[in-house]
Amino acid sequence: MTIKGRQSPEVPVIERRARRIENSQIRGVPGANLIGWPRLQNGMGEYLREIARALTVTGPPFGIKDVSQMSSTLPGDDSVAAYVREHCAYNANLFVVNADNMKTTCDLIGTETIATRFNIALWAWELSEFPDEWCRRMNTIDEIWGFSSFTQQSLAAKATIPVLCMRQPVTLQSPAPLGRLDFGIPENRFVFLFQFDFTAFIDRKNPYACIAAFRKAFPHDRSDVLLVIKTNNSERYPEQLRQLVQTVGDDPAILLIHGAFRRDKITSLMALADAFVSLHRSEGFGRSLAETMLLGKPVIATNYSGNTDFMRPDNSCLVNYSLIPVRTGQYPFSEGQVWADPDINHAAWHMRRVVQNRPYAELISRKAQQTIAEEYNLSVTGKRYLKRLELLGLVGQS
Fold it and tell me: What are the start and end residues of each CATH 3.40.50.2000 domain in the chain?
């Protein structure tokens, strides 16, 4: 666990925070208020739910403040609904929302709740440079927890407060009782899976590279392999969807699946695949990659950004890349930014290898499962959160 930032070294920073607590500027009983979107079925919603699960295993006491303004009648993930509270009773606020949502969130919970709590931001960001426009959001924050080394480094370069790398938990719900045919997937093929949300920016997720690598890996007869691309929120981006459908064309070896699935159905789809491929240009963490590894599947992915914390040469297939500029319109605050351009030939080589060399695929799959199960479980990650809050004097020593 490391701390970075542009102000003073670690010990003075911690002492300064400790004095603030000792001088009774902090109100609330010892514990954590998780502030975010507990029912939303997206990456940040799952991040909050996973932290809640970790805290139920290790402590400290916590409650969830729902700032999603999402109607309770809408479908959502209610797995941590029992912990939702009306008020922020605890002395530490953990903001599990992104920097661009901080102002709205702070307006909802009120100035007093912020001024009288120790505020920790758990922000996601997918590029190597954090936007200057969002740095003012740090004015109300005492500390930042990045959920990957990549995110930590990006935030720390702009921060004047401590920035720590705090791994997020990775667990899976039990899969729904579904088979391949329930998804329209043939039983007798080696299935590569890629999934992405159109709201996460198609240029960053880069499905076209997956298609290109798949076609290069298997240029002729593809009757024994299949590439499945699962999308979410495609209806909100009709032109981008049209282009994707047009690229796939009438290729019988590529299957597009659209729609929002509940977590157990997503788990089923991942479990039914033989391998996962992500030729992303950048990831803040790469949850789908870690979840598929936990299922014991070989994962092929770009050797760049947040996923490199848990993807290594002995447990996955890392794809070479070169850095290229982010073009205007491809991602917010793209000016002067770079991201990865994965090597299609290298990705295709990995795809052929996991199909043709099953002992190798099984070897890295077992190692992948071991890595996530041992390093990203609820106990390990929850103890890290607890230890940090104890160090800050926000909860008692366990």
Answer: 180-375
Report domain 180-375's class.
Answer: alpha beta
Alpha-carbon span 31 to 64, nearest angstrom: 11
Average pLDDT by consecutive 10-residue portion of the chain (398 residues)?
Answer: 41 45 74 96 92 96 93 82 96 96 93 93 95 91 96 95 96 94 96 96 98 97 96 96 98 96 94 98 97 98 98 98 97 96 98 98 98 98 97 87
| DSSP string across 67-125 | -S---TTS----TTGGGB-SS--EEEEEE-S-GGGHHHHHHHH-HHHHHTSEEEE----
Decide yes or no: CATH 3.40.50.10800 for domain 3-169+377-391.
Answer: no
Question: Which strands make up the sheet holding 3-4, listed edge to edge?
Answer: 3-4, 163-165, 143-146, 118-121, 90-95, 29-36, 62-66
Q: Phi and psi for 145 in degrees, rounded to 5?
A: -110, 115
- Give CA separation, 97 vs 2, 45, 122, in Å: 22, 9, 7
Sign of CA dihedral 313, 284, 238, 336: negative
In the chain, CATH 3.40.50.11930 sits at 3-169+377-391
